[in-house]
Amino acid sequence: MTLIKETDYGTPIRISPTMVTAEIDGMAVTVPAGTSIMRAAQEMGTKVPKLCATDSLEPFGSCRLCLVEIEGRRGTPASCTTPLEAGMKVHTQSPKLAKLRKGVMELYISDHPLDCLTCAANGDCELQDMAGAVGLREVRYGYEGDNHLVGEKDESNPYFTFDPTKCIVCSRCVRACEEVQGTFALTIDGRGFASKVASGNTNFLESECVSCGACVQACPTATLSEKGVIEKGQPEHSVITTCAYCGVGCSFKAEMQGNEIVRMVPYKDGKANHGHSCVKGRFAWGYATHKDRMLKPMIRSKITDPWKEVSWDEAINYAASEFKRIQAKYGRDSIGGITSSRCTNEETYLVQKMIRAAFGNNNVDTCARVCHSPTGYGLGATFGTSAGTQDFDSVDHADVILVMGANPTDAHPVFASRMKRRLRQGAKLIVVDPRRIDLVKVPHVEADYHLAIKPGTNVAIVNALAHVIVTEGLVKEDYVAERCDPVSFQIWRNFVAEERNSPEAVEHLTGVPAADVRAAARLYATGGNGAIYYGLGVTEHSQGSTTVMGIANLAMATGNIGRIGVGVNPLRGQNNVQGSCDMGSFPHEYSGYRHVSNDAVREQFEHVWNVALQSEPGLRIPNMFDAAIDGTFMGLYVQGEDIAQSDPNTQHVQAALSAMECIVVHDIFMNETAMYAHVFLPGSSFLEKDGTFTNAERRISRVRQAIPPMAGKADWEATMALSTAMGYPMTYTHPSEIMDEIAALTPTFAGVSYKRIDELGSIQWPCNDKAPAGTPTMHIDRFVRGQGKFMVTEFVPTEERTTQRFPLILTTGRILSQYNVGAQTARTANVVWHEEDVLEIHPFDAESRGIRDGDLVALGSRTGETALRAKISERMQPGVVYTTFHYMKSGANVVTTEYSDWATNCPEYKVTAVQVRRTNRQSDWQERYHDLHDETTRIAGDAAE
Amino acid sequence: MTTRIYVPGDAAALSVGAEEVDAAIAREAAARKLDVQIIRNGSRGMLWLEPLVEVETPQGRIAYGPVAAEDVPTLFEAGFLAGKPHALCHGLTEEIPYLKNQERLTFARCGVIDPLSLDDYLAHDGYRGLKRALSMAPAGIVEEVTNSGLRGRGGAGFPTGIKWKTVLGAVDDQKYVVCNADEGDSGTFADRMLLEGDPFLLIEGMTIAAIAVGATQGYVYVRSEYPHAFRTFGRAIKIARQRGYLGTNIAGSGKRFELEVRMGAGAYICGEETSLLESLEGRRGQIRFKPPLPALKGLFGRPTVVNNVLSLAAVPTILDKGALFYRDYGMGKSRGTLAIQLAGNIKQGGLVEKAFGLTLRQAIYDFGGGTHSGRALRAVQVGGPLGAYFPEALLDTPLDYEAFAAAKGMLGHGGVVVFDDTVDLAQQARFAMEFCAEESCGKCTPCRIGSTRGVETIDKIIANTNRDNNLEVLDDLCNLMLDASLCALGGLTPYPVLSAIRHFPEDFHKPARPRLAPAAE
């Protein structure tokens, strides 16, 4: 193991059909036209000295170290800004160039502290490297001249410091913030010698900085340094792995000293992120070693008992005996399990295998139930596959981007940066969202149309868009005729053409001016490559599946499926939610989305697993809760999901959990669900195990163990032990063997193996004989299901209606610095950006209720009430309030209802009728919760406190 | 009968009291119940005579100057309305040798006409160039400009026609014409004089450029220190638009050209074309690297003609009278006329438009009348703050791009700043570095750090600290800035420094040299 240092080619790759051949230092080199001399030289192994150039940024030409000589040309052009031209004869070294470079370095060092030995970047400093490369031996200007050696460090950001005394004003940080991240938080202030990097008129923390780390990454000196490196020193080896936050699935280098992580650095060769990161993946990994980590298995006979720490064997045996006891008493179907979208494919596969094979039923479900199950249903029905159609790179070729019910700058920040870059290049943007999310207007990006719908009218707006496309002759007829099912198309065409689906007819429902809908539809249909990106604002509705199908209809009707730059792209919420679905976590499906009632498929599994399997689908999560309350479902194994916090209608969930006789929680923290558990199995974080994650673009990436499992067992090992104790032995010695089994049983994974992933870096499924290198773009020549199928999408308003008692609509979501239920991020310094959930409310609604910014308000629905602070915000439309669910104590899901998607039971988190009023106390639920929490999380022996 | 009186509204005249003179004349005429019409013309460019009041008489315009408000009653007493003699009278303006001996093509109308009278402009041969251009194919216009030998008057001297040809050949649905009126060189004022004195000429030149290259939008970037020029030019644009010389149907041709004037951001560096484009786009005025050339990727990334005011203003003449007429003026590869601006320690400061080839000595003595102080001339800086210092021995250098380059100098924008024998060239060299440090955009290292180190090193030399070594360090630094700077600011700063050392070594080697007392004011 060594420290991996990616080659820096100095300038970005250029793609051109034309190749040029020239000579550099007497050697012939051939590169695509437009490639800089610097990059061409690096490609043949010749480093031209440089400081302001780095290959993640467009050339800038400011440091003047990379000057070269070109025969027949005057002067000494910069190799970063000069493209190689055919027949050029370039010299990268000459006495004249040596003198110039030494002169430049002499100037730099005349204004730089000479504290290399005690500097945080010692050993990882490009300035130091360049001083060495040019042979700088003296600074004849002396050090007493004007300088920047006195300056205050900005340590306001919790993760990195800005030390202006070490800055060489190369602008790499400023450019990274602009070009890579697209936030424009940094600038150069002043001019000439007084030029300095500034984060607006304030410090980094107070500035617009989103702490993505791109500037730190780009900095060639110690000016921007991770606090981890300042504290610990330079790492000595790296492990390439995949981030465990959102569905973007960024590739990272865990840079280590022994078993200790010094920093996480986005990996340049990562195909999902291309070297970019966000505040969560880059910096918020400290939870992995947080003192709250549970490291011992524990058991108790009832939830009011204190926990007792026991050995792994005792905990496993206790769990197995309880499950067997329950099955003996209540029947084989009285227990079940929930797989985790936070765990690896291999672990998820193993849990569902344990449930089907060892528990002997199909009572397996996953947290995708509450997020993207409608995606699976909707895209499966129309296209024939339950996944997004593109890779992320595809957005670079999109001309019109339609973002619906997604807030990428907060929830999928690394992809959002990519999208913003494309938008800055001129792509058009349509945002369909009740809130004025950041994408509607951020620096240098502005939505062409913001269709600010009323929550719950997604289907109406999608139908209205379709109406315009159909009635204004914007259908791509030849595409539809060639690729889609004509019968379903005709039915759909007639349906959406009905006047009741026109923008004018639905205006009173959606609240969106008909003219805007018409203009947006025309833009999407005729603006070139149209790409749709959507999120949970689409799926988490009573008509979530309908909207997904409506989106698919739009894409098919306009011919926007089956090539680069277009597509229908669900932005998946969790690191492995795509994978957990792929792995057969749903009660009705085996891996690869094949129904359990399909005899041929089932027999194949029975053969390989050597066990008889049920042919009927098992219970979904909400069914499990209902059955628990009915007394027929009494035992649950939950891996890496906190259903007590994340699922809607908290009080109903709590009642269900309380009713069960044995709950086994397998998690890295004592989560909310564990309050109701009888066995606690300590989990392993993504840093502690091997495996794979599959991101939103179907990309399977390796997770590699950076540190040993802190509790002694990786999650897959614990599952094996439980399965074995249940009487179905599992004997894998490495997760790669699990993947081999997945590949053998799953046609879309047939070509996947760890060896193949290592060769290719990552693989987008389907990967098999037909697509040995994977499939970046799906449905290229034909849809997976053959012909694309149009689905009629009748708008049926949710039964959740505003009333006089509950006149406002609550919608929920996430913010940038926090992640879902906060288990990870709330245990990091990310809390400086968001230490509590707040209720965003429009000034009008606040005013009429006498609510001022920061007031404690009661938020009540017919299911429950909670209290949190109000934030007056014009991002909201009148009548709609918004909160996040990052902290249990906020009780966002105490308020949400049991309504769910008609097809998949995905909860309707996004529409709850509520009332808001000022209050001076916590809600009853919150008070009860505190008491219960204290009582149910005691551990024997810790009682002293 | 109404008598026409011309009182310049030019900023140079205003700075020495033209407004008060105007008021005094109006007051005096009213008191005497005399029927006069005061026209606020541009400047004739004889700045030592400003405010230069002219009276229109049957013999021609009679010049009086410099006129102070308190001189006005005596002018009336003397009968200046009839062109009668007075102590301040210079006879017929056109016969004043300073003006008579010039070859005014670009400045032919400046100071003659009412700058904001389009009729006046038309009556003085205005828009004849455009008329001819509209009858030609774009490539023909470009060829005409190429054949005229016109080179960029901003300083670089790049052939204008070739630049236009590049833009014409670039394929894009939007192209621009940008006029660089960020005239920041010390001792220069020709652009301002023209913007204030004959704005329609520039509009006509830009319109021709636009038609030639296929641009539909133009911008004039005027330095913020030129509020009068900004205002006058803005008014001229409005008038031209009202009269159909800008807009969607230029002079009835069906061709479209819109023009806007933009106030500069107050930085010398914004006179550099790529910084200017950045500033026009609303960004920090910072240098872009080249290539890509602005001709291919200029304003907002589109093909853009960026020309100086005087380059564009020369175009109507070229189109009107033909390339051959224009190229008949000048010498060698420097064709046409040069707007020489005499400034500094000079007796008769002002604008001299003359064919290339006049020697520096002729300009300074025949027109400028020698130093203002009457002391011996010691140094001349031509081409702005980044131009070389020439000693007396180089005064016979002809004003010609190549001749100046051969003498390690540059013509630049035609500014000539004269110093007498009290000047200390070491201080001037220091000033050059200091100027660079002050005005550097801060992008490239040689300029950003080098200029500050340059000041410090010259200070050490002046203080006689380790002088020989520091002279060597300074020489190395100058060569670094020359070869490695991103733009001409850092790249030309060594010119004044090295020329000062080369031609005036005694100022560096003999720091104890007794200072000559400055001439009495």
Approximate shape of chain A: globular
**Mean of residue pLDDT of chain A?**
95
Structural class of chain B: alpha/beta
The oligomeric state is: heterodimer
pLDDT average of chain B, as an integer?
Answer: 95
β-strand percent of chain A reads 15-25%
Strand order of the largest sheet of chain A: 13-12-27-26-25-14-15
Please report the two chains with the greatest interface, counting residues with C-beta closer than 8 angstroms to the partner's C-beta. A-B, 37 and 36 residues
The main β sheet of chain B shows up as:
5 strands, mixed
Radius of gyration of chain B: 24 Å
Q: How many beta-strand elements of chain B?
A: 16
Enumerate the strands of the largest sheet of chain B in spatial order, edge to edge or round the barrel.
2-1-3-4-5
Low-confidence stretches of chain B: none
Low-pLDDT stretches of chain A:
none
Instruction: Please count the helical segments of chain B.
Output: 23
Number of strands of chain A: 36
The biggest beta sheet of chain A, please? 7 strands, mixed
The geometry of chain B reads as globular
Which percent range fits the helix content of chain B? 40-55%
Number of helical stretches of at least 4 residues of chain A: 30
Radius of gyration of chain A: 29 Å
